[in-house]
């Protein structure tokens, strides 16, 4: 997928696509939206992540992630309840949010990940920017444990999540920090 390390350390052992497993306890799916002059921040747990990274051919990389919207948390307790309710995420009827990449393209020191996100049963295109690093404590060339940061945004109105639009901003900014380990 994305690679800051690509130019520095693609070894023959990592020449083919490699499967990676998410380390959920060390990962954070964060979001932020405007709430008047303040911000609402929060996070959602990941229920599934399928990651294949190809360090020689970035475009052969693939990402599929499913989030648990029913267990989302927000910086204001009433905001979390409202967010999961029928006027926004409708977590009772749509307990999952999913993203699957359709293309990954090298972009400077990172990558652009295009895909399709499904929220409230509505699927729309989405673009995320990605950076990748070796996790601390791993030597140059060791791609067994990596950290990926993905950033992007969606407009909640595109998915029918229009509740409290007079108080809460439309754009939801995502900042995902995922730690992964090679599984093959």
Protein described:
The protein has 184 residues and is mainly β. Helices cover 7% and strands 51% of the residues. The chain is built from 2 helices and 11 strands. The chain has helices at 6-9, 77-84; strands at 18-22, 28-35, 38-43, 46-53, 62-68, 73-74, 96-107, 110-119, 122-134, 145-155, 171-182. The chain has an 8-stranded antiparallel barrel with strand order 1-4-5-7-8-9-10-11. Strand 7 and strand 8 form a beta hairpin. It is elongated, with a radius of gyration of 17 Å. The two termini are 16 Å apart. Mean pLDDT is 89; it is low at 1-14.
Counted by DSSP, the helix tally is: 2
How much helix, percentage-wise, in residues?
A: under 10%
Query: Strand fraction band?
Result: over 45%
**Roughly how many Å is the radius of gyration?**
17 Å
The H/E string reads: HEEEEEEHEEEEE
Note the topology.
Layout lengths: L5 H4 L8 E5 L5 E8 L2 E6 L2 E8 L8 E7 L4 E2 L2 H8 L11 E12 L2 E10 L2 E13 L10 E11 L15 E12 L2
Antiparallel strand pairs: 1-4, 1-11, 2-3, 2-11, 3-6, 4-5, 5-7, 7-8, 8-9, 9-10, 10-11
Q: What key attributes describe this structure?
A:
disordered N terminus; 11 strands; 184 residues; elongated; 2 helices; mainly beta
């Amino acid at each position: 997928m994305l690679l800051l390390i690509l130019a520095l350390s693609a070894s023959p052992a990592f020449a083919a696509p490699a499967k990676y497993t998410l380390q959920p306890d060390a990962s954070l799916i964060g979001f932020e939206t405007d709430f008047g002059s303040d911000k609402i921040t929060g996070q959602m747990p990941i229920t599934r992540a399928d990651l294949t990274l190809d360090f020689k051919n970035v475009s052969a990389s693939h990402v599929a992630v499913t989030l648990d919207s029913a267990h989302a948390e927000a910086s204001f307790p009433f905001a979390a309840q409202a967010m999961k309710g029928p006027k926004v995420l409708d977590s009772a009827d749509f307990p999952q949010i999913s993203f699957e990449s359709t293309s990954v393209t090298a972009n400077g020191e990172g990558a652009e990940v295009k895909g399709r996100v499904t929220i409230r049963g509505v699927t729309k295109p989405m673009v995320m920017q990605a950076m990748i690093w070796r996790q601390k404590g791993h030597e140059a060339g060791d791609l067994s444990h990596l950290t990926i940061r993905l950033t992007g945004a969606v407009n909640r109105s595109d998915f029918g999540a229009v509740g409290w639009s007079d108080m809460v901003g439309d754009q939801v900014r995502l900042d995902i920090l995922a730690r992964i380990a090679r599984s093959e």
